[in-house]
Amino acid sequence: MPSPSSTARSHSPTDWHAQELLLMREVMRLIGRSLAPGLVLREMLHLMSELLGLNRGRIVLVDDAPSSPAGAPRTASIQHAYGLTQAEVQRGRYAWGEGITGRVLATGQPAIVQDIDAEPLFLARAVARHQLPPETVAFIALPIEVNNAPIGVLACHRIRSRQRHLNDDLAVLRVLATLVGQLLQLEALVAEQTRQLQARNAVLANALNTKSARYGLIGSSPPLLQALSELERVSQTQATVLLLGQSGTGKELFARAVHLASGRRDRPFIKVNCSAIPDALFESELFGYEKGAFTGASTARAGWFEQADSGTIFLDEIGELPLALQSKLLRTLQEGTLVRLGGQREVKVNVRLVAATHRDLAADVEAGRFRQDLYYRLHVIPIHLPSLAERREDIRALALHFVSRANQAHQRNVNLSPDALARLEEHPWPGNIRELGNVIERLVLLTNDTLVTRGELDRFLPAAAVVLPPAPAPVQQIQAEMPSTPIAAAPLVRDYASAQSHSVQVLQAALVEHHGNQSRAAQSLGLTLRQFAYRLRKAGLK
Ligand SMILES: Nc1ncnc2c1ncn2[C@@H]1O[C@H](COP(=O)(O)OP(=O)(O)OP(=O)(O)O)[C@@H](O)[C@H]1O
């Protein structure tokens, strides 16, 4: 290429225009080649000098010193340069408002110094005056902005006695300063996303390495690991396990873990949600029926106990089991046999029972709602599952796990900012892990942002006062809503009061009083959990 000073002085306006276009084309080409702005910016400054005679170009950027105390004076320094020695670059540090460069930073306004020798504010700090040509030298400094705030300065020297018009140089420099701002903003965005992905990977890798991951359980908090080690100790035995814990704490996942950790892992795992089955259907569902046992029983059918033979049966919400069936269950557990509804024959079953409840079974025994002998039988190995509030250190890993899962399921690319994760750690989570999972899924589906911050997250967090525990599985909900026409004479059919027996306000007040605990709220109104849940749904509260 020709030397800058010779070309700069002999071009026609058309030549200059061609040089400008060449500069732009070269810079654009470079941007496409590399994401590292250092290379692009240095080459841009080189071409400014080579093609337009705008010499000793430099990019001064605000010093980003997170360790400096709040309120410390801000400074900026030369980060990219062309035609400056190492020592000159080192000297290029400016306080806010200091000299021409500092002023451009402080005001966000461009500065054009026609003659540096005549400008008292000009510092000649980076390049000493005697290093510059003896003729009149101009200095141009333009702000580099991101989101309308100056983050740096693009500056260069210019020999004043050239034919090229100053305004033409300014027009090109303005475009270049805008481009630099965009490049730096992109670089910051990529760096932030990379940092977040690395942090997320670290948390997920850590979670995967823990033994809980073997059962699909995320978390490594001491209370979770404690529950897990109790589980592993008993999994190889045949003993009944009783999982205690609030709704949504992972009782079903733990029940599956008991099954997977046992020698029965290749045999069936049958889950039964006792709170979702109408009383009249309990016996036939659990123990099966013979042909002709009731109207409509045109064929015999094995119940869930038989289907779980040589595997594991998980009776969720066992506190909801009608009293009459509690004694039948006890017999099956003690003798390993059952008799189908309408049958005579004893059928042998080899089933391991895992039961779960969020109720205080001891209190139910006391109140005569639960058989004491069955309670003792179930209570051989109780495992307490911690609430999410007792294991806040797991919230981050769980949240990231749910974000990943929801992103995959809905083909989205949503991330949580560090302050959003901190907000999740502060939330009380009365609905525990299920509530956390639901909030994250809703957020991933509905947010318009790819990076969700604390403020955006707040829109998705429920108001603290009324937090409803989650609903049972959908199929079983349908069963629960079926009219309760007794199939066989059930000795303990609960009285189904009218669905409008309690107003919305009464239902809501009961929930608030019992901190969202549906069982307690139902009890306080003299309703079963199912009756209560049904009314909630009817009232549109669920
Ligand atoms: N440690 C965990 N890691 C990942 N997901 C979990 C964990 N614990 C629970 N979950 C998820 O949270 C949700 C609720 O868990 P689960 O159904 O096992 O709770 P629960 O205690 O049985 O609730 P309920 O008493 O209401 O039946 C499920 O989607 C489950 O996959």
UniProtKB/TrEMBL annotation:
SMART domains found in the cross-reference section: AAA, GAF
UniProt cross-references to Pfam families, sorted A to Z: AAA_lid_14, GAF, HTH_8, Sigma54_activat
Keyword DNA-binding belongs to the record: yes
Cited Gene3D superfamilies: 1.10.8.60, 3.30.450.40, Homeodomain-like, P-loop containing nucleotide triphosphate hydrolases
Protein's name according to its UniProt entry: Sigma-54 interaction domain-containing protein
SUPFAM superfamilies: GAF domain-like, Homeodomain-like, P-loop containing nucleoside triphosphate hydrolases
Translocase listed as a keyword: no
Domain Sigma-54 factor interaction: 217-445
Keywords (A to Z) from UniProt: ATP-binding, DNA-binding, Nucleotide-binding, Transcription, Transcription regulation
TM helices/strands, residue ranges: none
